[in-house]
Amino acid sequence: MKVKHKLAAIAASAALVFAGATTAAADPLPGYECRSVFTGGGWISFCTYVGEPPAEPVPSTITRIAGVDRYATSALLSQETFAPGVEVVYIANGVTLVDALGAGAASQGRGPVLAVPREGTLPAPIAAELERLDPASIVIVGDPQSVSDAMAVQVEEAAAR
């Protein structure tokens, strides 16, 4: 009996959190049916759209930007988004991408995140993009295990051209 009581209290609590996180309205997600399931480790909520489909199809605004590799792709994305003379360029490891994710959030649209290998030769598309951007500053994201000091020198040289 106590277990049922605890589960009921958890269910009531989860319902309040779910409703409070979306809206205070009676129907927090119009057009959706939502359910919560207790898994033993916590509550999982899921919603299914049950509303009417739109009268007209939604026009597609999808654009694909892709280069021959991840380095070229980051350069192309930068070209499509930023004009020369940016405030800052963030340089991040293009293999692990963890630093690039953080840099993307930190940039707040002030400049691109360009992917580079940890070591070796700076990819030509990145060197050309650094030269085109002529950034006021460069932030290397991560320690030398992420982007080597030798790679950082190549980045700086390319931006100075």
Taking pLDDT < 50 over at least 5 consecutive residues as the criterion, the unreliable ranges are 1-25
Question: Percent helix among the residues?
Answer: 40-55%
Assign an overall shape: elongated
The span between the termini is: 75 Å
Strand order of the largest sheet: 4-3-5
Radius of gyration: 24 Å
Classify the secondary structure makeup into a structural class. Answer: alpha/beta
Beta-strand proportion: 15-25%
Number of helices: 5
Q: What is the succession of H and E elements?
A: HEEHEHEHEH
Quickly count the domains. Answer: 2
Mean pLDDT value: 79
Give the oligomeric state of the chains in this entry, treating copies of one chain as homo and distinct chains as hetero: single chain
Strand segment tally: 5
Described by strand count, sense and barrel closure, the largest sheet is: 3 strands, parallel
InterPro entries: Cell_wall-bd_2
Signal peptide: 1-26
Pfam families: CW_binding_2 (PF04122)
Keywords: Signal
Describe this structure in words.
This is Cell wall-binding repeat 2 family protein. The chain has about 160 residues and is of the alpha/beta class. It has 2 domains: about 1-50, no CATH class; about 70-160. The protein contains 5 helices and 5 strands. β1 and β2 form a beta hairpin. Mean pLDDT is about 80; it is low at about 1-25.
Features of this protein?
161 residues, alpha/beta, 2 domains, 3-stranded parallel beta sheet, two-stranded antiparallel ribbon, 5 helices, elongated, disordered N terminus
